[in-house]
Specification:
The structure holds two protein chains of two kinds. Chain A contains nine helices and 20 strands. By secondary structure, chain A is an alpha+beta fold. Chain A has a domain of 101 residues. By secondary structure, chain B is mainly alpha-helical. Chain B folds into two domains: 80 residues, no CATH class; 348 residues, no CATH class. Helix content of chain B is 15%, strand content 6%. Chain B has nine helices and ten strands. In chain B, strand 1 and strand 2 form a beta hairpin. At the A-B interface, helix 9 of A face helix 1 and helix 3 of B.
Chain lengths: 513, 429
């Protein structure tokens, strides 16, 4: 009888949730509600927790976190406009297929809609002599994913379960871990972009959630603290510095300025030049700034549609679902014509707009781009902050994938510790596996090449289908890449040096965004 | 444990590479694949590069370029038909595959140049007719007639495998005619200094502007193109793998099918691996040639012709001169204005760089008193032991200075028509 009651209760809960209309963004995930700021009377707790009859750890009302999240964010439910399984955002929580808003930036855990096999690439002169590329990965038909951050029965994937690159230099491929939705996201809200945990956590022996970088020198003249490799610190980070033997040593220090291989601290006057070393540890976690909450009744835009705006003026960015829906009907946003329907958007988002020529034919790709300021593109900024999003999100991904963050490494052939160069030219010190690496700076940040949830890119080539993980095991996994085989590389690179400016490759009639 | 894991990982990579079936010619080096023309979905990048776990600069999956190239083009590599270490092209990829022939460039570790048995028919004992001689440098074979490479005595790359340590100088680099520019800058050379491994449509994927690393190296101001034969074998039933050997026949200019451009052509015409001429000043070696026919043409273009086609020799010499700038000469009896490279053997027509020199490595032996001690342009004399003799062969094809004699009898004492060389007279090609 008790079991029957439980089943009935569970079914009742299901019906209740299914009937819940779309709440203001983020539904039950709003920080100021759940932290009590708006009063000690939050209701959302009851949506996910049971104090005495919970079905899963942390008193959740489902067998596990993933199952709980899927009650609203799954494929056949109606609790949220964001379906992370199918990789789609709906215009309404009613989930009418006819009301799709667009494809989700992160792809999906079961299906994704990256047009991975038919990529656009437009070549242009980035200066007087050098040719660069402007790529776009459009939205295509729904396909089963070939890689996902979480393996599930739904996607049939079997992941190695390793936090690749986590840990200090020389610590191997990475620890075995288990991750779930809450490893990355705080379902209670925290004011962060996509409610990302400032310090993402994975369950596993050996997983290191710390961010520690070796210091090689301090300079009194300019108060700079130089790190051995690029540090990924951001202005405002709180750090602990130890072992320098200078005024920089201390806890709860705030990063004032940053460059690739040095930083300064607020209120810290370096009194002496030293080269004795030390470490800096970020203790505050990584801030990834979010845009202002949408108005009541509206939700954020979680799709791949972006437009170039004016930083500091949020209204010039496609931040909210209402804006996307309006633009889909009118064909324009903020004076920018484009395709804003469910198939609109660019998954690659290296530049926004991906090709300025489409809306302004006067932007001549065969003429030095630096002489055409009206054609300048912007960094990807789903939060409306193009100057900081790339650095923030890369630092966040590197919280787990520690040794993937790369910019400048020391020149191994000189004795000058301040002589550094690109990580693709100079190796990471004391590291045999993550040795030479593609830089992960702006325009080449993690999300330029990878989606976060799941990708449907196909790895059918001889090399791509047998590509080894860092631990040496071969797999046809797409590694969350956005393009078939190694088209991701070709999106930016022509190593033959034979493609001329003005060359377009890809589907006929490309559009923006 | 970590080292073991790394060894296992490397072994896994090797097995993967070794198991890769022979790809169409070019393998991963095809321009139209790697530049995206055929779609932004190339697979070859993953064969050589790692974005986050690379082991060498430029994100390659090996400690350095040479090691990477050797995974397919090395002695134990199974990924390509061309073994540039041994100086041999095989018919098929994989151990035990029959030999197609000896590589034009020789090899970096061994080469199969019969440098001690050149053949010469003195057509005209007149200095002005030196380039009329009929000469051949055959493929080195053993007693069974099999191709028999020998250790090189010079190579464009110093390697542990070849034990060479020639001065790493780009001899003659820099502008001619401006006085004392010295012997040349010290440079670091690697495979990619000369070749673009991503493909570029050029003959042998040569870089139009070769540029080795080195302070003071002066790169060419403009590209030196060397036209390649078509990527696709016009016979759709046959593989696209090109013929990289010294086996050539004279064709009809403008009719590419009359040249042995593809490996399948060599097989179809029944030429054995022991055939071919390393001297290739004319094709075939024993027949008079004209300005428009019969010159060296591994790309099927022996001479200039309408349509913008430039003779292979002309393009090849111009390319070599991109680095070895002050070696290019149109007249050997006129001073250049350079203090060191003052008078130079002309390098026009069939006196192309590749007439006298191979590009990768030569097994010619310099045992003679003078040949063994000839200093480099910087006065460095190579005195280390090279295969039992001293003397760097400078990539020449014939022992000592037999290279000179293949065109010249400076004594003027031999009658026209005099043959010198192995008996029976070598055949063709």
């Amino acid at each position: 009888m008790r079991r029957l009651a439980l089943v009935l209760a569970g079914g009742a809960l299901w019906l209740i949730l299914a009937a819940v209309p779309a709440l203001a963004d983020g539904g039950p995930h709003v920080m100021t509600v759940n932290n009590g700021s708006l009063g000690i009377n939050a209701d959302g707790c009851a949506g996910c927790h049971r104090a005495h009859t919970a079905q899963g750890p942390f008193l959740i009302n489902a067998a596990d976190e993933t199952a709980l999240c899927q009650t609203c964010h799954g494929a056949a439910v109606t609790g949220s406009t964001v379906d992370v399984m199918t990789g789609v955002q709906y215009a309404l929580a009613g989930r009418d297929a006819g009301t799709q808003l667009g494809a989700l930036r992160g792809g999906g855990y079961d299906q994704a809609r990256l047009n991975a096999g038919d990529v656009s690439r437009a070549s242009y002169l980035r200066n007087a002599t050098s040719v660069s590329q402007r790529p776009k990965v459009g939205v295509g038909a729904a396909e089963d994913v070939t890689s996902a951050h979480i393996e599930m029965t739904d996607n049939g994937l079997t992941n190695p379960g390793i936090a690749w690159g986590n840990g200090a230099a020389g610590s191997g491929a990475g620890p075995v871990v288990e991750i779930s939705c809450a490893s990355c996201h705080n379902p209670h809200g925290n004011g962060q972009y996509r409610i990302l945990n400032k310090i993402p956590e994975a369950t596993g022996t050996g997983f290191d959630d710390g961010w520690v970088v070796d210091i090689i020198a301090t300079v009194a003249l300019n108060d700079r603290i130089y790190t051995e490799v690029s540090h990924a610190l951001l202005v405002g980070d709180v750090v602990t510095v130890a072992g320098t033997g200078t005024a920089a040593d201390g806890t709860s220090l705030t990063v004032a300025t940053v460059s690739s291989n040095y930083f300064t601290l607020t209120g810290v006057d370096i009194l002496a030049d030293t080269g004795v070393g030390g470490t800096v540890e970020r203790t505050s976690g990584v801030v990834v700034t979010d845009a202002t909450l949408p108005a009541p009744g509206d939700t954020r835009n979680y799709t791949v549609m972006q437009t170039k705006g004016t930083e500091g003026t949020e209204s010039t960015y496609l931040l909210y679902a209402s804006q996307v829906a309006t633009a889909a009907g009118s064909g324009t946003f903020n004076g920018i014509a484009g395709t804003y329907g469910p198939t609109g958007g660019d998954y690659f988002a290296r530049n926004v707009p991906w090709n300025p020529v489409i809306n302004d034919p006067t932007c001549d790709p065969t003429i030095n781009a630096q002489t055409q300021p009206q054609c300048a593109t912007a960094n990807s900024a789903p939060n409306g902050r193009p100057s900081t999003f790339s650095g923030q999100i890369t630092a966040w991904c590197a919280s787990c994938h520690t040794r993937y963050f790369a910019n400048n490494n020391p020149n191994p052939t000189t004795v000058d510790p301040l002589d550094t160069g690109a990580s693709w030219m100079y190796p990471r010190p004391d590291e045999s596996l993550f040795k030479y690496q593609h830089r992960t700076v702006s325009g080449r940040d993690c999300l330029t090449c990878h989606v976060s949830h799941g990708s449907n890119a196909a790895m059918t080539g001889d090399f791509s289908s047998t590509y080894t993980y860092p631990d040496g095991t071969a797999s046809a996994s797409s590694r969350l890449l956005k393009v078939d085989n190694r088209g991701t590389c070709q999106a930016c690179h022509d190593p033959t040096g034979t493609i001329t400016a003005g060359t377009y490759i890809g589907p006929v009639g490309p559009t923006v965004p | 444990m970590r080292r073991l894991a790394l060894v296992i990982a490397c072994g896994a990579v090797w097995l993967i590479l070794a198991a890769v079936p022979a790809l169409a010619d070019g393998g991963p080096h095809v321009m139209t694949v790697n530049n995206g023309s055929l779609g932004i979905n190339a697979d070859g990048c993953a064969g050589c590069h790692r974005a986050h776990t690379a082991q060498g600069p430029f994100l390659i999956n090996a400690a350095d370029e040479t090691a990477l190239c050797a995974t397919c083009h090395g002695t134990a590599g199974a990924g390509a038909t061309t073994d540039v270490m041994s100086g041999i092209q095989y018919r098929l990829v994989g151990a035990g595959s029959p030999v197609l022939g000896a590589l034009r460039g020789g090899g970096f570790v061994t080469a199969a140049i019969d440098s001690g048995n050149p053949a010469r028919l003195l057509v005209s004992n007149d200095l002005s007719s030196s380039d009329d001689q009929h000469a051949k440098v055959s493929v080195r074979i053993d007693g069974t007639g099999a191709v028999d490479p020998a250790p090189v005595t010079s190579a464009h790359l110093n390697m542990a495998e070849n034990g060479l340590s020639a001065p790493a100088v780009a001899w003659g680099n820099d502008v001619i005619g401006l006085g004392d520019k010295g012997p040349g800058p010290t440079v670091t050379l690697s495979c990619a200094s000369c070749h673009n491994p991503h493909g570029n449509g050029q003959y042998r994927i040569l870089n139009p502007v070769p540029a080795p690393e080195g302070a003071g190296f002066v790169p060419a101001t403009g590209p030196a193109t060397v036209t390649d034969s078509p990527f696709d074998n016009p016979d759709a039933a046959e593989a696209d793998t090109k013929n990289y050997t010294v086996i050539q026949t004279r064709g009809v200019p403008g009719t590419l099918s009359t040249y042995l451009l593809y490996a399948a052509d060599v097989v179809d015409d029944g030429y054995g691996p022991e055939t071919g001429d390393y001297w290739h000043v004319r094709v075939p070696w024993n027949t008079a040639s004209t300005p428009s026919t019969g010159a060296d043409a591994p790309n099927g273009i022996p001479a200039n012709r309408t349509g913008g086609f430039v003779a292979f020799n002309t393009q090849m010499t111009a390319w070599c001169s991109s680095c070895h700038t002050r070696y290019a000469s149109s007249a050997g009896d006129e001073p250049s204005g350079d203090a060191l490279f003052a008078f130079r053997h002309e390098t026009v027509g069939n006196r192309a760089c590749t007439t006298c020199h191979v590009s990768h490595g030569s097994n010619a032996r310099m045992a003679g008193q003078f040949s063994s001690t000839q200093p480099f342009p910087n006065d460095a004399t190579v005195t280390y032991d090279i295969g039992g003799v001293t003397g760097d062969s400078r990539l020449l094809k014939v022992d000592n200075r037999g290279t000179c004699q293949l065109c010249h009898d400076p004594t003027g004492t031999l009658a026209d028509g005099t043959y010198t060389g192995p008996v029976p007279v070598p055949g063709t090609p």
